[in-house]
Amino acid sequence: MLLVKYELDKERKKNLKQKKLVLISGIIGPMKSSNQSFMNTAKGYLDNGFKVYHFAFYSKKNQKYELSALLKYENYKFFGIPNFLSYFVNGRRKKKNHKKNHNFWQLPNPNEILKPHSELTKSQFIFKLFYDISESLRQVIITPFLKPDIIYAYEIYAAMPGYVISKILNKPFVKRFQGTFIDKDNIDSKTTLFHKKAYEKDCTLNIMANDGTKGDVVLKKLGFKDDKILFLLNGLDERITKPAEKIKIQELKGKLNLEDKDLVLGIFNRFYPFKRIDRAVQLIKELKKDIKNPHLLIGGMSGPMEIPIKKFVKDYKLENYVTFLGQVKYDDMLAYYHICDVILILNDYANTGNQLLEAAYLGKQTIATDDGSNSKVLKYDNIHYVKPHNFLEESLKAALEIYKNKDRVKEKINEDILTWEERMKIEINKIDEIIAKWDK
């Protein structure tokens, strides 16, 4: 009888054993102004009882990243690199790119479609080679002592080191992607080899974000079957689902002198070509011909299109119609959404991302470019889709229609969009299944 009880207790403890996840993310992490996808993924595992060992190619002191929320967890352990090396990798690249900004002076036609540059440069190739070797060695030295249940590679840099250590330890290997740079036009191009090698690396499961880049199609073209693909929309960050502070909204309106504006539009993105902030300034230029006092808020960090966009604003005397906010903290995004009459999401790439989900949830009037799939996935009355090849005409018409009905529109919460917590439960249930099968 005692022996039976002992065996039952032993089995119960085994089932309650804390699962261990090695998270390899390279240069990807919780950046201060963006990438709540990474933060909510890490928190999802931590909140569900996993012990997370996070291997990253930056230090705790690197000011690009905000690790404080994760470091509060007892079941989170961070393995970074020395700060001087972290600065050399991130800071030096930023300075070099800043010089290149001055070469971009012409804005593209607003009806032109731009795709992100995914070419592998010589410096990227050298860094990738260095990272693959150094991180793989670090995994071989440290990870066997951690006795993980699963290896989780976050984005392309982590794929090779994750694959190597999973094979050495004979553990399930999961790859997680926030989207893809590859499409049907460049899938066999040498310029995308950098990404393709990571996507096609064999694994137990690919977790691909449904962000408008059709990553599921790419994975299938590379030979993966449905049972090795988990294709999910992102979730809503809890900071967006909390009630808005009316006092904070009024203070922000006053600070930005928006009380007398007839229509306030907002675009919150980085100044990268495919993010298409240029479309927003082209739109406000046309909109002011029909509306007395429209205003555009542009929130985002620097990028190669920042200088030409600011030059365009100055050349066309739009300074009174455009406010550059600079970097906007994600904690403040809810207030910024609420001071806008119209949210603009104008990407030519990855346009079914977090912002479209947030705008749809909040019921904010939104003008979004349609890639042919996002309008099928997110159908809401407050989202006005426009064709990118006819952007200026269709967006102007949509903005004027919103202005005409501005006082009659009632914003309502669309509660059928999953939160990050709910979205992560779908993922973690799948991970639990993988671990359980692997242990048998």
From TrEMBL:
GO MF annotations, alphabetized: glycosyltransferase activity
InterPro entries for this protein: Glyco_trans_1 (IPR001296)
Domain Glycosyl transferase family: 250-409
GO biological process, alphabetically ordered: lipopolysaccharide biosynthetic process
Keyword Transferase: yes
Alphabetic keyword roster: Transferase
Keyword Transferase assigned: yes
CDD domains: GT4_PimA-like (cd03801)
Gene3D superfamilies referenced in this protein's UniProt entry, alphabetically: Glycogen Phosphorylase B
The protein's name: Glycosyl transferase family 1 domain-containing protein
Organism: Petrotoga olearia DSM 13574
